[in-house]
Amino acid sequence: MRLNGTLNWHSPEGLVRSVAAKVGQGARFCALFASPEAAGTRLLALLSHSGTLVPEATMVPEGAGGFPTLTAATPAAAWYERRVKDLFGLEPRGHPRPDPLVLPRRPGSAPPRPGWGQPVSALPPDDPGAAPPAACPGQATGPLELDLSPLPAHVQGEGVFTLPYGPVRSGVVESVEYLIETPGERVPHVRARTFYKHRGMQARFPGLSLADGALLAERYEGVASVAHAIAYCSALESIAGCQPPPAAGLVRVLHAELERVANHLSSLLAHTEAAAQAVAAARVATHKERLQRLRAELCGNRFGRGVVVPGGVSGPPLAGAKSLLGPLTRLQAGIRADLELLMATPSFVDRLRRTGVIAPSLARERAALGPVGRASGQAGDLRSDHPYAAYASLRPPASPTRTAGDALARQQVRQEEMESAFDLARQALEGLEELGPTPVGGWRAGLGAVTGEALGWAEAPQGELFYLVDAVQGRVRQAQARSASFHNLALFATAFPDDIFTDFAFIEASFGVSIAGVAG
Amino acid sequence: MPWLTRGLREGIVTTRYPHRPDGYGASFAGHVVCEPGALGAEAEAAAAACPTGAIEVGRTGARLDQGRCVLCGRCCQVAPRWFRLRPGFETAALSREALVVPESAADRRAIAQAREELRQRVRALRRSVHLRHVDAGSDGSEEWEIAALTGPIYDVQRLGIFFTASPRHADVLLVTGVGTAAMRGPLRLTYEAMPAPKAVVAVGTDAISGGLAGGTYASGTGVASVVPVDVLVPGSPPSPFSVLHGILLAVGLVGERQREQLPGKSRSEEVAG
User: Fold this and answer.
1) A127-134: average pLDDT
2) For residue B27, what are the domain limits?
3) In a domain, B15, yes or no
4) Do B74 and B174 reside in the same domain of the chain?
5) Do B212 and A121 touch (CB under 8 A)?
6) What's the ipTM?
7) Which class for A160: exposed (0-12), middle (13-18), buried (19 or more C-beta within 10 A)?
8) B196: exposed, middle or buried (C-beta count within 10 Å: 0-12, 13-18, 19+)?
9) What 8-state DSSP symbol labels residue B51?
């Protein structure tokens, strides 16, 4: 969706009023993007209103120091505003709890304002002789100052203590710290400190060529590389006003759906391990490894990297329907059979049922996304709501929903999504077979030296993914991503109403977020 | 009971590596190699096309730093005469210099020295090794590839290799990610909590050089400035076989790959194996 000329501009107070009015009419709060500009910081709130994406913007002038909070209008904005405070030094006035989230700056130190040139590094430079690039107004010019001191506890009471779980945790997992406030069994409060993995990705995009930007997008949230590359590239294609060729759309669907299965298997694997189902875990790990190998057979990379490029795809798949349909069908049958048995195994199902319940009303208020949202009655799916790639012609089935909102419902949603993902991948393979080795329109369209700003999207395995990309003459001026992982992890703290400490692993597995996508 | 029979019906799926070569692992496009004497417009174009600046064209020819390479394959398309994706997964190396190809005589001496020092240090670890993994700002994919090692297909437990939660029990530290500002402290603490003798394996291009994501205000350019790295496993991400090779290399159970170059082959042939 090209943004130039379509933004609804407001004053900072006007933005709050507009968002509050639209949310009151049933609109869903999708994201809040912040971009550094010469005049100040542009905030762009994205809403989904009656099936349309509505961008609402305001410019917070340099020196204003803050802006009125949107969190009062919609609680879903809470984490976004904490991020804006960390990275841009703007205080969300009236925010209930603006603790550091992605960058724990020492109070009073200058913010990095990522996206404007290359902010000064806090770390030893590669080339000590290089002159630092010019900073924009208000941007940190000295080394970044971090404050990693512990946070005060929120919950008071006899025997309540804070368990800092992380950032180095047991198992091979991503680094994140959960501050679990507990009297021993119940978990009245959990806070996620995600800044350990903050890489400042928004600062890495400016100046890249369009093709290099796609490679970087693939590494924003590595387990959803294909979805990130699709969302980034479709933003560029909107700027250029071109459509990728039909064959490229099919290749994108093929890789994106296999990526979905891989991520859902990963979530299932974490569930089976948490439930100590050793044989089931071994089976799921085997399925996942076989799938990763099939993905590598298609493109030479186990994560589908290098496939999606601006304007289309890099080329035809290295393997066709003939060699892949058989293994794919066998894999699907194997997963289905094991899941049927698993869902009939009481020692597994009992750990998921009524664990980590998110009521549909809460999911609606916080605009929960992806499988987490669908398990709590929120039906949104970009593949059918705003079709991209070849989804319009493949007719993805209506996304499954449940209303129980527990870990079991999230698992059931993922199970159905795996089935439809296999079907879509098969359709894409057959479609490619029909188009032949030299399809009409080729594999990629030329974009030229594009200039403009657009929003791109994809339904990642974790849920709705957006890219906001601003390009000038074939180079990235600014780009930023909003992963569903970021949006959904904000709900994590609400998922322990009746749960105890030992449910933690299940609730975490059922969220299926990637911390890389949260921290950015 | 149904689970038991289901497991049995599947049969043995585990690789025989490192005792026997593995067909799948050998077909994997493992790393990009550079022919000696790569000069001229094509080599210059390849260097300009590289998204991470891994190629430097010197007086005698181009050299490619596999520790920066993210395997995008652009140089192989621009200059197929000089660069190509070479199959195989034994990509880990014992020093930063050893990842720069073609190698120089000075590198060879440094590599030999690093190998001998590590051999002396890890002599006691050969029978049973405990690993601790720390993510210092990865994109999340390296964790999948490392975790795959405990599954039935790689099953590293058969080799006496185990993952442990406590750094106090760990002999080898696997580090992934660019080395973010906030993870430098926890990473250092984990390393210091491990008893000697110990070895560090940097897993992935991000951990070696920062890769594509490194070099911002919050991301580092690899983890070597935080912990002393003994083994480097390039790749973005490296395949599970490459990670396994790196671990075995760290404890002296296998040798480094052969560093001479093989005659050329196209990428699709190599991937098809």
Assistant:
1) 45
2) 23-89+258-272
3) no
4) no
5) no
6) 0.94
7) middle
8) exposed
9) T
On the question of pLDDT at A365 being above 60, the answer is yes
Q: What is the pLDDT of residues A397-454, one digit of tens each?
A: 888 899 999 999 999 999 999 999 999 999 999 999 999 999 999 999 999 889 999 9
For B194-221, write each residue's pLDDT tens digit.
998 999 999 999 999 999 999 888 888 9
Nearest-neighbour CA in chain B from A19: distance (Å): 32
Same domain, B125 and B236: yes
Which segments of A62-182 are extended strands (E)? 66-68, 91-93, 161-165, 177-182
Burial (CB count within 10 angstroms: exposed 0-12, middle 13-18, buried 19+), residue A153: middle
Give every CB contact of residue B129 below 8 A, 6+ residues apart in sequence.
B160, B161, B162, B171, B172, B247, B251
Domain co-membership, B130 together with B168 = yes
Q: Which residue has the tokens 């439809």?
A: A420
Q: What are phi and psi of B131, to 5 degrees?
A: -110, 145
| Domain total in chain B | 2
Looking up residue B140, the CATH number of its domain turns out to be: 3.40.50.12280
Is 50 exceeded by the pLDDT of residue A123?
Answer: no
Burial of A91 (0-12, 13-18, 19+ CB in 10 A): middle
CB B198 within 8 A of CB A267: no
Name the pLDDT band for A136 (thresholds 50, 70, 90).
low
Query: What confidence tens digit (pLDDT) does each residue in A162-174 have?
Result: 889 989 998 899 9
Same domain, residue pair B53 and B166: no
Residue with tokens 């299926």: A512
Instruction: Determine the distance in angstroms separating the CA of A300 from the nearest CA of chain B, rounded to an integer.
Output: 6
User: Is the CATH number of domain A1-114 3.30.460.80?
Assistant: yes
Q: Which one of B17, B69, B135, B139 would you mutate to disrupt binding with A, by most A Cβ within 10 Å of its Cβ?
A: B139
- Picking from B4, B143, B179, the nearest residue to A279 by CB comes out as B4
Q: Are residues B234 and B265 in the same domain?
A: no
Residue A519 pLDDT > 80? yes
H/E/C letters for each residue in A274-292? Answer: HCCCHHHHHHHHHHHHHHH
Contact across the interface for A303 and B267, Cβ inside 8 Å: no
Q: Do B137 and B238 fall within a single domain?
A: yes
CATH 1.10.645.10 fits A207-507, yes or no: yes
